[in-house]
């Protein structure tokens, strides 16, 4: 079994394989191209995860030759900081990157100058000779450039020294955030203001796929793949789809998929039962044809879930087009494919709509990895893994020639799990939200609010018997609470032997 050992100095990691089961040809550096697909607000609720209600045939098909991670957990349940942890490989407790502007603001900000070591894995691959292209929302901004929601800003690269090309098309929406919050016909959330205008929570215009931004971005990605095919160098192509982020906007045909389909409201609708409940301010800030009750009425919950599902099905179709293009260009056999959701999303669970909580639904998200010839192809794994592990995994699998990082990596390679789907993965995963810390083991989730050296608002959930986190058993299991608090204090999950 290959194991990745990371020997870190302040600005250096050396990556080496201790035991070799590979042929000499497999040891070649820059072994594979990478297609990294990031999907905003994507729950682990897809056909390949056993959820038959939602229609994701293209991701399901890819999953037949990939490994589906049942227990993948993000570091922070909000877009910017989750992506910061993914791209830099740094744990939020060390990087202080716990806010949406983590890459560009505060003590966590990335340096614009090129350092001795790479600050992100796209930069590391670029410095290894890969041609790197970003389309859509991969870092926090929807086009890789630093602008405000209103389009103002200097447009510098949000991920410094990482991309040879930024190729996000804007179409009728004219700039990045305008396209990110798009409605039909060039209208955006950012252009709807004043009492005479509304911001619809969901909309399903009767347009072709490329009549909305995600379809346009897929068109651009197909074009880029054709260009990359002709280059005499490996590539790293990252495509970040906007949906199913609010507002729930997808072509009508995808909403029509759910006409007559039974979609059930959330199982756990306990209002304010958790100390970590929030009022879903972003969700209720949109205009909807229903009363803004909490919990939301049953029929309104169903309609909102169908609109969310329509967005997921829309993105699924774009992913299918990308994978088909890889096959047509005969690139699939030499390309690692990663599908990653930047965090989960409450769909009425705990009477919440959105992310921004330390509970399971916000921190568990989709992760699917395909490596050519992988042993665990077509399987699902219950291994506990974190978003932090993707950086060292790509380095381990692809072996890029440049191997220095600006900071030590805090994740671990998932190669053992890619070889054996029964591998348990890490002993636990850690997530961070505000002052809360959330630790997830195979059997439990403990949430605690940290203040100084003390912890309060303890919530313990038994995931063997209570996957919806309906009953806090912290008072009944003090020994489990204390054991998991030690994990939170240690802040350093390890790969199981």
From TrEMBL:
Alphabetic keyword roster: Calcium, Hydrolase, Metal-binding, Signal
Give a Pfam family name: Sulfatase
Q: Which GO terms describe its molecular function?
A: iduronate-2-sulfatase activity; metal ion binding
Query: Which residue ranges does the record assign to the Sulfatase N-terminal domain?
Result: 33-397
Q: Which cofactor does it need?
A: Ca(2+)
What Gene3D superfamilies does the annotation carry?
A: Alkaline Phosphatase, subunit A
Annotated InterPro entries: Alkaline_phosphatase_core_sf, IDS, Sulfatase_N
Q: Which domain of life is it from?
A: Bacteria
Which Gene Ontology cellular-component terms appear in the entry? cytoplasm
Q: Which residues form the signal peptide?
A: none
**Family statement drawn from the similarity comment of this UniProt entry:** Belongs to the sulfatase family.
Q: What is this protein called?
A: Sulfatase N-terminal domain-containing protein
Which organism does this sequence originate in? Answer: Rubritalea profundi
């Amino acid at each position: 079994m290959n194991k990745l050992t990371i020997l870190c100095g302040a600005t250096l990691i050396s990556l080496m394989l201790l035991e070799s089961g590979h042929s000499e040809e497999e040891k070649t550096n820059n072994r594979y191209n990478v297609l990294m697909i990031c999907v905003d607000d994507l729950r682990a609720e897809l056909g390949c995860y056993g959820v038959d209600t939602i229609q994701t045939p293209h991701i399901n098909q890819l999953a037949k030759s990939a490994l589906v991670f049942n227990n993948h957990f993000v570091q922070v349940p909000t877009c910017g900081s989750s992506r910061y942890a993914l791209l830099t490989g740094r744990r939020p407790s060390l990087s202080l990157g716990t806010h949406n502007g983590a890459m560009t603001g505060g003590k966590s900000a990335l340096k614009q100058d090129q350092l001795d070591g790479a600050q992100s894995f796209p930069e590391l691959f670029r410095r290894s000779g890969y041609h790197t292209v970003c389309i859509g929302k991969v870092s926090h901004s929807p086009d890789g450039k630093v602008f405000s929601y209103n389009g103002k800003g200097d447009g510098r690269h949000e991920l410094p020294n990482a991309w040879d090309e930024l190729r996000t098309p804007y179409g009728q929406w004219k700039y990045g955030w305008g396209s990110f919050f798009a409605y039909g016909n060039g209208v955006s959330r950012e252009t709807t203001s004043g009492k005479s205008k509304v911001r619809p929570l969901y909309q399903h215009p009767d347009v072709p796929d490329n009549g909305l931004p995600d379809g346009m971005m897929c068109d651009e990605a197909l074009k880029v793949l054709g260009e990359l095919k002709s280059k005499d160098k490996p590539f790293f192509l990252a495509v970040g789809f906007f949906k199913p982020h609010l507002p729930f906007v997808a072509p009508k045909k995808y909403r029509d998929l759910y006409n007559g389909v039974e979609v059930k409201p959330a199982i756990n609708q306990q209002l304010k039962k958790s100390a970590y409940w929030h009022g879903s301010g972003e969700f209720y800030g949109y205009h909807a044809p229903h009363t803004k009750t909490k919990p939301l009425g049953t029929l309104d919950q169903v309609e909102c879930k169908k609109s969310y599902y329509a967005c997921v099905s829309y993105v699924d179709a774009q992913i299918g087009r990308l994978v088909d293009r890889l096959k047509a260009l005969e690139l699939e056999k030499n390309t690692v494919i990663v599908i990653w959701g930047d965090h989960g999303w409450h769909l009425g669970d705990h009477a919440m709509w959105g992310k921004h909580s330390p509970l399971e639904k916000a921190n568990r998200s989709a992760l699917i990895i395909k490596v050519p010839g992988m042993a665990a192809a077509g399987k699902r794994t219950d291994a506990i893994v974190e978003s932090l592990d993707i950086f060292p995994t790509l380095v381990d699998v692809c072996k890029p020639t440049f191997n220095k990082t600006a900071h030590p990596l805090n994740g671990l390679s998932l190669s053992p799990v890619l070889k054996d789907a029964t591998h348990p993965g890490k002993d636990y995963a850690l997530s961070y939200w505000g002052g809360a810390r959330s630790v997830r083991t195979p059997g439990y989730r403990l949430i605690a609010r940290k203040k100084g050296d003390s912890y309060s608002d303890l919530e313990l959930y038994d995931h063997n018997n209570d996957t919806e986190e309906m009953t806090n058993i912290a008072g009944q299991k003090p020994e489990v609470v204390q054991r998991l608090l030690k994990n939170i204090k240690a802040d350093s999950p390890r790969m199981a032997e």
